[in-house]
Design a protein that fits this description.
The chain is of the alpha/beta class. The protein contains 4 helices and 7 strands; from the N terminus they run E-H-E-H-E-H-E-E-E-H-E.
Length: about 150
């Protein structure tokens, strides 16, 4: 079990910089120190995100969070390749606010959907810790960025 301050967490951003900022803030408030990789403003955000996954595997991240993944017919093979790289390296991947997930659900550990209105939503930092430490967790989690 890793301590919060020693975990290497990478968050691959989405086109929604505001939501990304809220997620980063929630993790930091929970004493996590995630690295943020922006995809906003790039020519192909999904391709940039795929490369971010590969880069974070090379850097030996403990957990990769992919925000706003949008798998479609055009990019499915590239997403599968990127996520398979993480899987083979033993790096769990969580999908935050996914638009469309890969067909093969073995390529990611969990999906996390932010819902700050749900009183019983799991704090994002706690959900991240559960996935990173391979603690028992739901496959689909409702999470909150609000500090309880």
């Amino acid at each position: 079990m890793e301590d919060r301050d020693s975990l290497s967490i990478a968050m691959i951003g989405s086109d929604d910089v505001t939501a990304d900022s809220m997620a980063m803030g929630a993790m930091e408030a929970g004493k996590l120190k995630p690295v943020y990789i922006t995809v906003s403003g790039t020519v192909d955000a999904q391709s940039t995100a795929q490369q971010g996954v590969r880069d974070m595997v090379q850097r030996k991240a403990d957990l990769i969070i992919v925000a706003g993944i949008d798998v479609n017919e055009v990019n499915a093979e590239n997403w599968n390749d990127a996520l398979e790289t993480a899987r083979k390296a033993g790096v769990p991947v969580a999908l935050l606010n996914p638009i469309a997930v890969p067909e093969d659900n073995k390529l990611y550990a969990a999906t996390m959907t932010i819902n700050d209105r749900m009183a019983d939503a799991t704090p994002l930092d706690d959900a991240v810790m559960a996935v990173a430490n391979n603690d028992p967790h739901d496959r689909e989690m409702l999470v909150t960025t609000i500090d309880h």
